[in-house]
Amino acid sequence: MVKGRLEAFSDGVIAIVITIMVLEMKVPDEANLAALRPIIPVFLSYVLSFIFLGIYWNNHHHLLQAVRHVNGRILWANLHLLFWLSLIPFVTGWMGENNFSAMPVALYGTVLLFAAIAYFILTRVLIDHHGKDSILATAIGRDFKGKISPVFYAVAIPLSFVNSWLSCVLYILVAIMWLIPDPRIERNIT
Amino acid sequence: MVKGRLEAFSDGVIAIVITIMVLEMKVPDEANLAALRPIIPVFLSYVLSFIFLGIYWNNHHHLLQAVRHVNGRILWANLHLLFWLSLIPFVTGWMGENNFSAMPVALYGTVLLFAAIAYFILTRVLIDHHGKDSILATAIGRDFKGKISPVFYAVAIPLSFVNSWLSCVLYILVAIMWLIPDPRIERNIT
Amino acid sequence: MVKGRLEAFSDGVIAIVITIMVLEMKVPDEANLAALRPIIPVFLSYVLSFIFLGIYWNNHHHLLQAVRHVNGRILWANLHLLFWLSLIPFVTGWMGENNFSAMPVALYGTVLLFAAIAYFILTRVLIDHHGKDSILATAIGRDFKGKISPVFYAVAIPLSFVNSWLSCVLYILVAIMWLIPDPRIERNIT
Amino acid sequence: MVKGRLEAFSDGVIAIVITIMVLEMKVPDEANLAALRPIIPVFLSYVLSFIFLGIYWNNHHHLLQAVRHVNGRILWANLHLLFWLSLIPFVTGWMGENNFSAMPVALYGTVLLFAAIAYFILTRVLIDHHGKDSILATAIGRDFKGKISPVFYAVAIPLSFVNSWLSCVLYILVAIMWLIPDPRIERNIT
């Protein structure tokens, strides 16, 4: 079974999710700078989610490189990941429109947490299918970032009710951690 | 005539349908847990439709694997299927926003029924074009699930006016039936 | 220059146009049959536009089959076609929400007219690039349907101010004409 | 690392951005010509942005032709470009709905400026990866248009507060400059 359509469908969903998020930035009626001010938190939450979705697309791209064949379980593990990613526009809009207050920031982290778990499940299902000595298993490796990210989210969710800005700092730290290139992985793939 | 664009276009439409459904989950104005409560039925109907669209994408993916060539009739049979799938966001939103009351649940089943019929027509048109002894015809086989699903919908539609939750149970049963892997088909394709 | 991305981009735009049209069908607040009644004309206009976009996608699919190489002019002729197609959701919504009254029906025809002209220009630019003796030129042939369609639209636009339903009949006639398979073209391509 | 998914994802995002812009053209309630009048500036800003996005897609298409391999930095440089392009529907809607008044026209230019810078960064990152003597570097050449465009935007942004129509003229001049075919580049690619 070829992986081409799995990639194409995932690309399509992530591209749409990343783009419809911008629809949450409602065009203001007034044409002055003051009218833009309430949009600033919505814009900031958009930037954060754009980066997270970019990271997911990037990692998905890398992961699928090493995939040789897919089966029904893999298709569903992938759809499960896309499901959680599809909820990002909703929580992004809620967080931005309520100026990063406790409950929306906690729900944002919850969706990120479930997306991270879904990604982890996808890697396990793929390794299961390709074998522990496959190029894929080697490319995924110990997956330190994949394992530490859910811990950050799990801390950030309750922390949000103490100080929601601290939770946002944790989300940003996770994003930065993923943005720092990992030469070991790129070398492995080559 | 190559099937690549047929797959790409179908992937595109299904990816968009699955993603714009989430736009029916309107971001609430308040930032507390109570504000999320009216969204719960919308969310549940979203989950159900996400699974149904996932099943359709999965089956479409499998079906097209065995396709060798396409013609005008096949393109239109496929567009006919996509038409019914494109109505799913509308009925999903109506069902969720009205807390699974009788009429929306019946209309939801009606759209699922027509989508199932459209999928059945697509398989017939494909077998017609490839021959009864083709790999495609063998892969489709007796198509038990494809034939029993419309029966479930046809029962669920009138049943909705008696008890709409029973209809939802029937929809969930159909989804579970399709989610259970069918090793025979995967073996046939290999 | 390869044509793969031209096809992929066109597929993407047409898939999105065909799907966001459904967003014009606003989910009604009430959960009864009466609440669906005002949506019926919107639904009918959606069906008509779905068929027209399906015809365009089909024809575009056939046309690009015979294309060997693309250049800047072809890319822009194609974008010009996509521009007019992208206006279809707007005119479809306006026509449906105003129950097929004169002005919206005339504007609907105007957009169809410009789309037909854009498609005609695209075929000319393609023949120009491939030569009059190319397979492409033979496949396009006399292009009777492509030449008669704009005439229908040009009649339907002023006619709408006399009786807008007659214009709709003309639009439906054009759609039927394109839906009737043309064995000569399929044979030529083979 | 293959470039196929980079192209597919970029095509997807640009196709969605170009299409959801049309959603800013809200369907009017009345069915007469007067109801269309307030939509005219929204339509004009849509046409302008459609052309700009068409130019970006065209240039991206050409640029990627000469690309041989991609790495993490290239993926992010590309996502950075897509980020600025994704903001175009928002600024297009704001500019159109406020009849091309000073602040929205300035913000429109700002987004175009950042998109131009992002495109420039993408070309540098690509040349960096392929070498200064690569076909890619030759194809990009001195990149006169790419260097002069940001200058136009940088002039247009403050100018908007003097006369916003003059800024629009500058935007149109940039668009025309890119629309004029550049035979040297097409020759180089061949």
Automatic annotation (TrEMBL), chains A, B, C, D:
Q: Where in the cell is it found?
A: Membrane
Q: Which GO molecular-function terms appear in the entry?
A: potassium channel activity; proton channel activity
Q: Which InterPro entries match?
A: TMEM175-like
Bilayer topology term: Multi-pass membrane protein
According to its record, what are the GO cellular component terms? membrane
Source domain of life: Bacteria
Q: Which UniProt keywords apply?
A: Ion channel, Ion transport, Membrane, Potassium, Potassium channel, Potassium transport, Transmembrane, Transmembrane helix, Transport
Q: Which family does it belong to?
A: Belongs to the TMEM175 family.
Q: Which reaction does it catalyse?
A: K(+)(in) = K(+)(out)
**Main subcellular location of this protein, as a coarse class:** membrane
What is the name of the protein in this document?
Answer: TMEM175 family protein
Q: Which residues cross the membrane?
A: 6-23, 35-57, 77-95, 107-127, 151-180
Species annotation: Halotia branconii CENA392
Signal sequence residues: none
